[in-house]
Amino acid sequence: MSRNDLFRARSGHGHAPVTNIELFFDLVFVFAITQLSHALLEHLSWLGGLQILLLLFAVWWVWIFTTWVANWLDPDRANVRLMLIALMMGGLVLSSTIPQAFGKNGWLFAAAYCSMQIGRTFYMIWASRGIHDGRARNFTRIAFWHFLSLPLWVAGALATPEQRLFLWGGALLVDYMGPVTFFPTPGLGRSKGHDWDISGAHMAERCALFIIISLGEGVLITGATFASLPQDGIHWLAFATCFLGSAALWWLYFDTGAVRGSERIEASEQAGLIARNAYTYWHIPIVAGLVVSAVADEMLLMHPYGHIEPAFLAVTIGGSLLFLIGNMGFKKATNDRSLPPFSHMIGCVLLVAVGAAAWFLHWQPIALGMAAFAVLVFTAIWEWGSYHGGWRRWAPWFGRFGAADA
Could you count the other beta carbons within 10 Å of the beta carbon of residue 219? Predict the structure, then answer.
């Protein structure tokens, strides 16, 4: 088989279908999301939250870079499949080390992350050279940036847990600045927008599948936790609140955002730039919000009544807030509007107000959970009414505000 056969055959912005091996690859990240949510629940503090956030950044960066690569390569080719299976093994090691990444397994986490990022990049350089020289130069620049962050990953693995947070934070800052600055590299210059000639529909579909994975973690936690609890009225109410909250999050992402995002990126001549902004970066707070919300669901099910602890308040409001902020950025990046969706801005304000009221008025945890769920439903209804013209039919006097979401 020639190296030319390793790439998908498509013209222009033609759709590159998601393959079974890509879905198989995602199974590793089901485990990763589970590990992240469980680790956050066990280390629910400011320091623990920062550590889990850093690990989430690393997990997402491995997954999204692999998604970019699979957008160009043909996963039905045996050579590419073997590369993805090797990455799966590395991803399984990465995921399994998450609970002790800031303990005894720090070196293993760093080794898995760096070997996956660098190994996949060199594979693309080899596959592209002489066939897609622009793409080969682009991945050579990416390799340069991976090597820039490598010393920080190694130093962090050898350092104390406190120092590791700063060193790995610096390493991820370098990694995340690469696409923002178009990977400037000595002797090669910067990448261009046309170097990122992706199938936009494929990118949109892959990221939507990752959101499903993250939502699924919340549903699994809800079901598994509820099964071990007393089946009384208060726990049934908490169960319904958690599940319907997940459904509201699904609605907010998939009802209009995912569809319009896919249509916009597929039709754009700058699909790579939209993918960088809307999918590579703005999906991070969306995923983070889902991980945090899964933790909030488990805490609500375990303790639906009593005093609201600061940690529960933080994850209940923080999870939904992160999700809405990410959705705002994503929907603005895939739309011509000058402002983010007005419904989401109001939803963020209401969430903060609910959190303040719950704390100062000493609400029960179940009351806070239900109020946060009500804000999500309100936001979803507002956006749905705006997008489908409902405000003009039901409340013409409110149409100007509703139109901000259309």
Answer: 16
The pLDDT value recorded for residue 331 is: 93
Q: Report residue 185: phi and psi, to 5°.
A: -140, 135
On whether the CB atoms of residues 69 and 131 are closer than 8 A, the answer is no
What are the φ/ψ torsions at residue 192 (nearest 5 degrees)?
-110, 160
DSSP three-state, residue 362: coil
Give the chain's radius of gyration (CA, Å): 22
Q: What is the DSSP letter of 17?
A: P
Q: Is 279 left (phi over 0), alpha (psi -120 to 50) or beta?
A: alpha
In 159-282, which ranges are continuous DSSP H helix? 161-180, 200-227, 233-254, 257-267, 271-274
pTM of the model: 0.93
Complete domains list, the chain, with CATH: 3-195 (no CATH), 200-403 (1.20.1410)
pLDDT for position 130: 87
At residue 197, the pLDDT reads 83
Rounded to 10 deg, the angle between the 233-254 and 283-302 helix axes is: 170
Rounded Cα distance between 20 and 293, Å, is 29
Could you tell me which residue, 243 or 397, shows the higher pLDDT?
Answer: 243
Using one digit for the tens of pLDDT, what is the confidence trace for 244-299?
Answer: 999 999 999 998 888 888 888 888 888 888 999 999 999 999 999 999 999 999 99
Report, as an integer, the average pLDDT of 225-234: 93
First to last CA, the chain: 49
CB 371 within 8 A of CB 354: yes
The span from the CA of 45 to the CA of 208, in Å, is: 30
Coil vs helix vs strand at 184: coil
Q: Model confidence over 324-350: pLDDT tens digits? A: 999 999 999 988 776 788 999 999 999
Cα–Cα distance measured from residue 175 to residue 145, given in angstroms and rounded to the nearest whole number: 7
Q: Residue 106 in contact with residue 163, Cβ under 8 Å?
A: no
